[in-house]
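Saturday, quiet lab. Running sequence design on the structure tokens for the scaffold JK sent over.
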């Protein structure tokens, strides 16, 4: 009968277990000195060796002739356990046997001596699935079992176990297996199975396994189906991924705003019957690598990449600001959840999101605003950007205010020094106005209390004058009348005071009608003109 690779190549001794030396060395020491614990807790992600080590431990505690803390594999006890005929080694899946009656059966059995082996061993897999009453039934037996009983609990979700259970076990944390260790094991299995496996394909499979040996071996078996050569193309075809080159091409198209290439990438995914969600996961993974490259000085320590891949990422990271990367990651994450929940609109969601990645002006979130500001600051600091004439002459919309009647000055004789008299009539000095930064924070703050007010404030602009007054400019009189009510104006005053970090008096808040509210912000105007 055919046996799957992950079962055929399951380690038989502790020395064969890959990537968990910090655990196997302790278990070997206990086996050599006969100092076994009454209960073990193996926790860690899937495919990292928990069940494998549990089976080896069950053999070594019953082995008649252990060798350096490892089961000999030839005695009657080892052979019985390997063949599954040992009645004293019971393996239970708590996912399907999680009731209190299952634990009561174990509690009633432990009082009896083993029938043929030295120890009766209970392996409870996915123990976190037990019910609360089942945990309570197990507690006393786990704390003080008979001398001939050993419990081995395995779980992928340690946080779901009661602290009373964890404290009564010898706990071992299984780590994700490194890519190099997975590659070495895959190449060994490929040689033994006479599979033509290329080094690049082995590394790609190891990365896709995400630290799980079982997943890596299963992927190798899948890719080698039909006796074909396992190369990068075979892995991509078998798994349904688009490859790192396709991801880099997609990100480059986002940078260059090449919409034709972006739409063709999605069309290729759909045409080849690949899952758009898998394509999206790969794209998010690439953005994560770019963000690491952009944010850290020793990116190679966190990225499992070749020299050429690191060079490609470095070029992409130089083309992005950190703020833009964070914006793109947020958009990709939101789109990923939408794609996973959608059935018919996956392609549309992917295409719309890629278009939004190309132009941050299509997004009104705070992250998009930070991205645009960062891009402007970078261009200003490099000397590329110069403020356009319209921005230099007028940094805020023109304000149409009601004319103030000036009383005629009282005639009086004033002695003026000759030197202080101007040579020509002086032009009245225009007040210096500055835009209020973080205006959208004010709008959001007001919106939490009164959403209808936020709708009027969102289209308004705010400036401060030299005296510290805040002037809010509306594009119509209705907006002024709506916010001028005592309650609405007080909410606005409190929000502005919080954002500015200073107390704003009632008379310091002025509501006016602007003659014109520009469609583009100053940032947009400067960026568009360059």
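Result came back. Writing it out in full:
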């Amino acid at each position: 009968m055919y046996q799957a690779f992950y079962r055929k190549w399951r380690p038989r001794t502790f020395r064969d277990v890959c990537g968990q030396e910090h655990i196997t060395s302790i278990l070997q020491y206990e086996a050599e000195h006969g100092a076994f614990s009454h209960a073990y807790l193996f926790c860690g992600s899937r495919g990292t060796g928990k069940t494998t080590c549990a089976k080896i431990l069950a053999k070594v505690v019953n082995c008649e002739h252990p060798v350096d803390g490892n089961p000999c594999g030839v005695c009657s006890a080892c052979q019985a356990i390997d063949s599954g005929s040992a009645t004293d080694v019971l393996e239970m899946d708590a996912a399907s046997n999680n009731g209190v009656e299952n634990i009561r059966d174990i509690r009633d059995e432990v009082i009896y001596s083993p029938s043929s082996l030295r120890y009766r061993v209970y392996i409870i897999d996915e123990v976190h699935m037990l019910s609360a009453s089942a945990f309570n039934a197990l507690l006393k037996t786990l704390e003080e079992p008979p001398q001939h009983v050993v419990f081995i609990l395995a779980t992928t979700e340690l946080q779901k176990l009661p602290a009373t259970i964890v404290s009564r076990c010898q706990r071992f944390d299984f780590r994700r297996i490194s890519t190099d260790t997975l590659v070495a094991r895959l190449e060994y299995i490929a040689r033994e199975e006479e599979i033509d496996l290329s080094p690049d394909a082995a590394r790609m499979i190891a990365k896709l396994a995400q630290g799980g040996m079982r997943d890596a071996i299963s992927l190798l078996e899948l890719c080698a189906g039909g006796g074909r050569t396992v190369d990068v193309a075979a892995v991509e075809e078998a798994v349904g991924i688009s490859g790192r080159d396709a991801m880099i091409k997609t990100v480059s198209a986002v940078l260059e705003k090449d919409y034709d290439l972006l739409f063709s990438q999605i069309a290729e995914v759909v045409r080849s019957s690949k899952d758009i969600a898998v394509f999206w996961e790969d794209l998010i993974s690439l953005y994560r690598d770019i963000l690491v490259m952009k944010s850290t000085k020793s990116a190679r320590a966190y990225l499992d990449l070749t020299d050429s891949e690191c060079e490609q990422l470095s070029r992409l990271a130089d083309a992005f600001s950190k703020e833009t990367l964070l914006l793109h990651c947020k958009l990709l994450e939101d789109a990923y959840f939408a794609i996973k929940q959608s059935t018919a609109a996956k392609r549309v969601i992917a295409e719309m999101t890629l278009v939004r990645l190309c132009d941050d002006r299509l997004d009104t979130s705070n992250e998009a605003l930070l991205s645009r500001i960062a891009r402007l600051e970078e261009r200003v600091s490099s000397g590329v950007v110069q403020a356009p004439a319209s921005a230099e002459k007028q940094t805020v919309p023109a304000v149409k205010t009601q004319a103030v009647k000036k009383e005629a000055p009282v005639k009086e004789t004033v002695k003026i020094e000759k030197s202080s008299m101007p040579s020509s009539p002086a032009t009245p000095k225009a007040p210096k106005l500055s835009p209020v930064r973080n205006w959208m924070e004010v709008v959001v703050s007001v919106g939490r209390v009164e959403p209808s007010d936020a709708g009027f404030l969102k289209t308004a602009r705010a400036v401060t004058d030299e005296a510290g007054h805040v002037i809010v400019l509306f594009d119509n009189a209705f907006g002024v009348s709506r916010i001028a009510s005592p309650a609405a104006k007080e909410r606005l005053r409190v929000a502005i005071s919080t954002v500015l970090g200073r107390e704003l008096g009632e008379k310091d808040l002025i509501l006016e009608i602007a003659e014109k509210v520009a469609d583009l912000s100053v940032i947009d105007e400067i960026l568009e003109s360059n």
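Notes for JK: The chain has a mean pLDDT of 82. The first strand starts at residue 39 and ends at 44. Ask whether to fix the surface positions before the next round.
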